[in-house]
Specification:
CATH topology of the largest domain: Rossmann fold
CATH superfamily of the largest domain: NAD(P)-binding Rossmann-like Domain
Number of helices: 15
Radius of gyration: 23 Å
Number of strands: 14
Structural class: alpha/beta
């Protein structure tokens, strides 16, 4: 079976056609493999079948290429029986009580139980806690009447998607671990057709843990620099200058940058998966919990700094008209999942400010779904303050500083652009 995946023109089935699954399907098509994409949303499947992409990193032209190469997009899970390898790329959010919500993974496991056939590889890519692949997918193939390592192979390979980045799915090294060593070897052979580099670890649990470590590392270091930013402000020191200086060290330092909070589908959520699993093992994750408190407190800290900045100009936050620049969670994308920008805007409104928003990537209707008025930049003179919450490259920062009396820059974009302006204050 390993040789089959290395040498044959096999078909990749993808469950979940969102920010992870759709780029993976495109990587399979570019590699000359067949593609069967399944999504529970019939509207989404039909849109993809008409070459209409809903994901920033996949163009309509990419879809045209995949469709011309024979790719199909369906809302009927039975079609996955045509696939030789099935990759599960469904959401794995947190529930309201902070515990993992595995409902989408459970639904995918049921789809596998109904559609799996002998000769298939089943690989989970959704971020989750160590043990999920063994606990949910291995039983699903048994429910289908199949024997692990004889009929089917089960593995985990964490998604590594960076929305807005020039790197494609196939350019990013893949970590792979099987629920058995044989499943791991088969999965690694399959992923070598999808990615330039594959790193095989000893188990699915190790692969699951590696994903949580990657994003927990980022969350903890972002928490550290957010705390340093707050301390630097207290001490009258420019944190951006500090980071720039420290980054000149060619070893032992990697720069991280402060901001109004963390967002997206990984950094706010994945460390909490690890913390939850640690609590179940009666282990305290002190670094993770401290970083989470700091990061989750940044929207309120940002609001306090804006209020202070307005006070220096003799204005109160309540009653001020504020232009929020950016709604997406990071620059260059339309993804607003868990966006700190939205939380800052909501807190400003709760303090009595009137907040309008401009985002060249997020559609006006989506902005308005968050309770904000979507505006262009034609009437800058109406605003008391503009706040940079997402540093999109398409925003005319110098023109905004010329048209609005005060600008609060929570992303350090003015410094990066070399714009030293008296009415701009950085986080």
């Amino acid at each position: 079976m390993q040789r089959f995946f290395e040498e044959s023109a096999w078909t990749a089935g993808v469950i979940g056609l969102g920010y992870v699954g759709l780029p993976l399907a495109m990587a399979a098509a570019r590699s000359g493999l067949g593609v069967v994409g399944f999504d529970v949303s019939d509207e989404r499947a039909q849109g993809l079948g008409a070459a209409r992409s809903h994901v920033d990193d996949v163009s309509d032209a990419d879809l045209h290429f995949a469709l011309d190469s024979g790719a199909t997009f369906v809302s009927d899970g039975a079609a996955l029986a045509e696939a030789d390898a099935v990759f599960i790329c469904v959401p794995s959010p947190l529930a309201r009580n902070g515990e993992p919500d595995l409902s989408h993974i459970e639904a995918a496991a049921r789809t596998v139980a109904e559609s799996a056939r002998p000769g298939q590889l089943i690989s989970l890519e959704s971020t989750t806690y160590p043990g999920t692949t063994e606990d949910y997918l291995a039983p699903a193939v048994r429910e289908a009447g199949l024997t692990l390592d004889e009929d089917v192979w089960v593995a985990y390979s964490p998604e590594r998607v960076s929305p807005g980045d020039e790197m494609k799915t196939g350019d990013i090294p893949k970590v792979v671990g099987g629920v058995t060593p044989e499943s791991g070897r088969v999965a690694a052979a399959a992923y070598r057709r999808l990615a330039e580099s594959v790193h095989l670890v000893g188990s699915a649990r190790a692969a699951e843990m590696s994903k949580l470590l990657e994003n927990t590392y980022r969350a903890v270091n972002i928490g550290l620099i957010n705390e340093v930013a707050q301390l630097s402000h207290k001490l009258g020191i420019d944190v951006w200058e500090i980071i720039e200086a420290a980054a000149t060290k060619p070893f032992g330092f990697q720069p991280f940058y402060p901001g109004p909070g963390v967002g997206g589908h990984c950094i706010p959520l994945d460390p909490q998966y690890l913390a939850w699993r640690a609590r179940a093992a009666h282990f305290a994750t002190r670094f993770i919990e401290t970083a989470e408190r700091i990061n989750s407190g940044m929207p309120e800290y940002t609001v306090e700094r804006i209020a202070e900045f307005l006070e220096t100009a003799g204005k109160a936050l309540s009653g001020s008209r504020i232009l929020a620049l950016g709604v997406a969670y990071k620059a260059g994308v339309s993804d607003d999942r868990e966006s700190a920008a939205i939380e800052v805007a909501r807190r400003l409104i709760a303090r009595g400010a009137r907040v309008d928003a401009h985002d060249p990537h997020v559609g006006d209707s989506r902005i308005e779904e968050h309770g904000l008025a979507a505006v262009d930049l034609a009437a800058l003179e109406l605003y008391d303050l503009a706040v940079v919450l997402t540093d999109h490259g398409a925003i005319p920062y110098e023109r905004i500083a010329e048209g609005v009396p005060l600008v609060f820059d929570s992303r350090g974009v003015y410094r990066r652009l070399g714009l030293d302006l008296a009415n701009v204050q950085a986080l």
